[in-house]
Amino acid sequence: MIRYECDRCGVALQPNDHQRYILRMEVFAAADHIDLDAESASRPHLDLRTVISELAKANPDDVEDRTYRILRFDLCDNCRRAVLRHPLGQ
Q1: Which pLDDT tens digit goes with each residue over 33-60?
Q2: Range of 51's domain?
Q3: How far is CA 8 from the centre of its chain?
């Protein structure tokens, strides 16, 4: 049997409870527009080799955390209201 509890305050929740809410959060790296000058555009393979080399040495979990992550939380009604009032916990 699956047991649910609020990930914020720990109160027990029922699977089909109308007081149970799901918070999904998506965090990803901002991709800004890259301006290439004539010199860097003529040598794109050099930058790609550097990126590949750095990725080969990096911890895959760290790379994922720095590029894209989806989080999911169960919330009770009280915590849902609190998160909506102050999404960043302020």
Answers
A1: 666 566 666 665 557 788 788 888 888 8
A2: 4-27+37-85
A3: 17
